[in-house]
Amino acid sequence: MKLPVDGQRVRKVLLDFDLTVEFGSGATVAFSEVVVDDLVVDEDNQFEGLRAFAVLLGVVCDEAEFDESGVLRLTFDGRTRVVAHPRQEVESWEFCAADGSTVLSGAGGTVESWPAPPHRSDEESTREGLPSIGATVVRISTGDDASVEFSDGTRLNFDLPLDAGYLVLRESVTASSDAGGDWVVELSSGHVIFYRPRTT
What we know:
mainly beta; ten-stranded mixed sheet; 2 helices
């Protein structure tokens, strides 16, 4: 069975508790464990996975298919292969179309699907803003509209260098200030983000 992302380019890669690829249509595929060419990516090496998927930014998906046993296969630009096998304890992958309809491989490979919800909000769930002390970084993304998102609903709109991802994701804000129009955010890892807001 096919997922409707054939011919679409990868526009963003996100990392929170899963590794997610977002396509031009707004459709996403999130993975808890996946093989990118020969690299196995799971919760133990998500930052390597983020770098592997970042290479696909702007690349077109040639094919996206899943079978009744829950195995998902994607091919990009005729060469990069992404395969997600079922996991016994958790879902392996989840596809969400732009309209909110969902297909996933649940624990043990059970494929489930849901139609689009009757009312879908187009409001953004986060806003550009200086994060509050104690807020945690819940997601980083690279590609179009790259950002660092915090648990208090704020985000900083910039493309974090991927090598710094492990110093940022899931870290708490220990200090945040407005230094004459530029924002300074210090994290519990010791990493400091200097940021010039895009909005006022």
